[in-house]
Design goal:
Blueprint lengths: L5 H28 L6 H78 L3 E11 L7 E4 L12 E4 L2 E9 L4 E5 L7 E5 L7 E6 L7 E7 L9 E4 L11 E10 L5 E8 L8 E8 L27 H7 L1
Antiparallel strand pairs: 1-2, 1-12, 2-5, 3-4, 3-12, 4-5, 6-7, 6-9, 7-8, 8-11, 9-10, 10-11
Helix pairs in contact: 1-2
Keywords: Cell shape, Coiled coil, Membrane, Transmembrane, Transmembrane helix
Protein name: Cell shape-determining protein MreC
Organism: Megamonas hypermegale
């Protein structure tokens, strides 16, 4: 008969002790969790056993919650920024449109006042829609044509002064030759009453905006600051439209004549709205006096009938 060794008995006992301890710990944890076995020792054991797991779980949960809040804030801020940007763009567009309408209203008001102050002109408002690419500085395109009654050689103006003439009229638009074109020639006169010096205003080839009044005698009565207006000579331009102001006087080639450098009344680089003079009449003040009726009665005129007062006295 074989007798078991002491080592085997010791191993079996140790295994039983370990199993008992494990079961005891599990029971303590279980009862402590359901609050049916609450002792300081069990509570301490539960805390010591579960604390690491709770710490890790709490940290992970906090990180996840913080990340979720961060993601929510990112998307919220993105949506807010997108909405604010759309509102900002809309406000900018409205401000720009309002400023443009205000500018257009101011220009049209000036044109309306000009029409009121010049009843001798029949004005057709027009808008500049382009410039001739080959003569950028000397020709413009307007949105009025022969369908609107525009014809070649009609005068084009702004409330500030003379712009030019209709170079070519098409059905829906027209090409305007500016007075800055060297090929143009405008009969002009000094507006000052004690001068009334006549000359011709032309554009210059060396500048896109300069105009000169030429053919001026050396001893002519013209000085810097004089206002130059259309003379009406030749019949193309109506009389009295402002052309520009004399800025300086210079000797012409040969020295026999001089010319006046003018500052144009119109800023040709900023033309937007103009008016075409489709018809014009002499101002009322410039019309010749009408013949008066004769003061002496005619030989065969009948005597005037007696008034009621005279008839009463006769009675």
């Amino acid at each position: 008969m074989k007798i078991p060794s002491n080592n085997n008995n010791f191993s079996a006992k140790r295994l039983l002790v370990v199993i008992f301890v494990v079961i005891s710990v599990l029971c303590i944890i279980f009862f402590a969790a359901i609050s049916r076995f609450n002792t300081p020792l069990a509570h301490a054991i539960v805390i010591n056993v579960l604390a690491p797991f709770q710490s890790v779980t709490s940290a992970v949960s906090g990180k996840i919650s913080a990340f979720g809040d961060y993601v929510h804030d990112v998307f919220y801020v993105y949506d807010q920024n997108r909405e604010l940007k759309a509102e900002n763009d809309d406000l900018k567009s409205k401000v720009t449109r309002a400023a443009e309408l205000e500018s257009e209203n101011a220009r049209l008001s000036q044109l309306l006042n000009y029409r009121t102050n010049t009843p001798q002109f029949d004005l057709l408002p027009a808008t500049v829609i382009g410039r001739n690419s080959s003569t950028w500085s000397n020709h413009i395109i307007i949105n009025r044509g022969s369908n609107d009654g525009v014809d070649k050689n009609m005068t084009v103006v702004t409330p500030d002064g003379l712009v030019g003439t209709i170079h070519e009229a098409y059905p829906a638009y027209s090409e305007v030759e500016l007075i800055t074109d060297p090929r143009s020639a405008v009969g002009a006169i000094v507006q000052r009453a004690d001068s009334r010096l006549a000359g011709v205003v032309k554009g210059t080839a060396d500048s896109s905006s300069a105009i000169n009044m030429t053919n001026i005698p050396q001893n002519a009565n013209i000085v810097e600051g004089d206002i130059i207006v259309t003379s009406g000579f030749g019949g193309m331009y109506p009389k009295g439209i402002v052309i520009g102001t004399v800025t300086s006087l210079k000797n012409d080639i040969g020295g026999l004549l001089q010319y006046a450098v003018l500052y144009p009344a119109v800023d040709f680089q900023k033309l937007e709205d103009v008016a075409v003079i489709t018809n014009y009449r002499e101002p009322v003040s410039a019309l010749p006096p009408q013949p008066q009726a004769p003061t002496q009665p005619a030989a065969n005129a009948q005597p005037a009938p007696a008034t009621n007062q005279n008839q009463g006295e006769a009675k």
